[in-house]
Amino acid sequence: MSTSSTHSISIDPHIVPWSYRGSFLCFATRSGKNGRLTHNNDICLVSHVHPAGLPLFALRPNIRGQLPSPSGFHTTPSPVKFVASPSHLAWIQDENNTVAEATFCGPRVIRLRGSLPLSFDTDQDLAIDMFRTWMFKVPSPDQQDLPILPTVEFTSRPDSALRFVALKGKFDLINDAPSTCNNRRITISSSEPASEWDLLIVERERAPSYAPVDSVPSIDQLVESAQQLTFVETETNMAGAIDDYTRRMCPWTPTGSQISHTDRYACYVMWTSTVRPGGYFKNESVLMSKLWMNKASMVMGQLLQLPRSRRRLPDSMCHSELLYDYTKPPIYGWVVFKLLDILHAYPSDPAHRAANPFDRLPKDVLKKLYDGIARFTLFWYRHRSSAGSGIPWYSHGNDSGWDNSTAYDDQTMCSSPDLGAFLIVQDDLLAQMADFLGLSEAKEWTGRREKMVKALIDELWDKDNKVFLFKDAYTGRRWTSSTLLRYIPLVASNYLPKDIVEALAVGVQTHLTEWGLATEDPKSPSYEPDGYWRGPIWAPPTIIIESGLRSANYVDLADEISKRYAHLCDKTGFAENYDAKTGAGNRDLSYTWSASTYLVLRCEAETRKGKVE
């Protein structure tokens, strides 16, 4: 029943949410924090306007007669298996009998068809606040000129609304209006024997959208547009959209290098985890995942639009939640330098490669970027300083992004070497940007950078043991730790003395396993295989340390770290983090941090081979 993409890969919906770029909906077997809101038996339709994801329905084909009355998500094993490619999801009975299948018409429209009845069950026992649902069949319109298609409206508190439209087939509802029972069921089935049903599920655009109202298609317009195509044509369009995205993300294809299976898998994880503007997202944003980690770290577009009065950045954001309990480290200096390097390596017009990387950005955009980063940098200097120290402090491990690192076991209120190093890089970026923009602050930022280099060395460098320390923000007491965090100052390798960089390059190798950089020394008694920041390999420190080593001309070591990370992704995919000794994936197994890091390192490796002009 399906058509195949030219570059199809297999997708396991138990691991990777099946979705469409821009959509807040996905199909997955797991949802809620750590997958706790589902039983991992059936495919669920999940909404990501809710923090950690809200499973709206569990879907089950009627294989062996009538299903039991709806009592929520099914606790019994599914009678079918699930097979998916990036553009096609199928419910398979007896190895090769497709009884239902799905594709996307676009970010807000899902199309399904099938030969057996398919039921959508809600669950009144969901452990979230204020959960309630409402559904009803829409009466036939009295205007004779309107098309009469069976239609069901469904709403779920909080903040989800769908319209089910049967292009072919009929609906049967259980516990619809006026029932107040939250255990509800929608069943789509064929109107005639030996025929198929054909269904559209349309997501209502919730207010307030950041796009102009007139540019947001109505549900009726989306339904009418979907009707113009067959199911196969719709799937072909979805496959083409994914292939186009993959070619843009993997620009080495025209030069002869092949796009590998892992490349395509990484692109799919990125593509499927992207959402359109809405809620707190003012721009298209990439979520950490469309399983349950559906937050976006403070993306660059949001930084540009941050109110001038607000210097501190939130720790995280999702569609309907903005968290200020912690903040983010000053990583934007390194990020902008990295993005400028990528823009320089892959110019839109190779014949007109910019001499100055800042020339790649319009000056008004560059000025907004400068203002946003400057405000956030001054937050650290003005609001996170302490007497007797030139290095600001973190209030918690979450401020650094290394939530439960062993560095913070005794005291979370501390000056950390990564914080000083990030500020050095960020100060230098701001000095260069100010100079390019002709601003008088350039010398001030250069002065801050020089002072921070001195403070980092004087206060936190242990020259006897050749390692960076951590410092209590209250007492000035210093301590060491067996965490990889000690080596993040390699990010500032261009600014530190050569002997310190050399010591860091030697020391970091104690964390290097067959698969990559362990966040805790593997020989440490505090090492945990699935201990979050107490052992597992993570993508962010991998690329930060790799780039610092490369900048300091430790090319062989940087190459080795890059190769081992690529090998890890080839083996395991794109997990939230990885067991540093076995390479097994931990926690959320469809994570954009890991996929994007893989793609950047892959692009850079191709560039070094001279594959990209």
Structural features, described:
With 613 residues, this protein is of the alpha+beta class. It folds into two domains: 18-209 and 235-245, Distorted Sandwich (Beta-galactosidase, Chain A, domain 5), CATH 2.70.98; 250-608, Alpha/alpha barrel (Glycosyltransferase). The chain has helices at 219-227, 231-249, 261-272, 300-304, 332-345, 363-383, 397-400, 417-437, 442-460, 498-507, 539-551, 555-572, 592-608, and strands at 18-19, 25-28, 43-47, 54-61, 81-85, 88-93, 97-106, 109-114, 118-121, 132-137, 151-157, 160-168, 170-174, 185-189, 197-203, 274-275, 285-286, 316-318, 321-323, 414-415, 461-462, 467-468, 470-472, 478-479, 577-578, 585-586. The strands form seven sheets. The chain has an eight-stranded antiparallel sheet with strand order 5-6-7-8-15-12-11-10, with helices on one face. Strand 23 (470-472) and strand 24 form a beta hairpin. The longest helix is centred in the middle third of the chain and has 21 residues, at 363-383. The two termini are 42 Å apart.
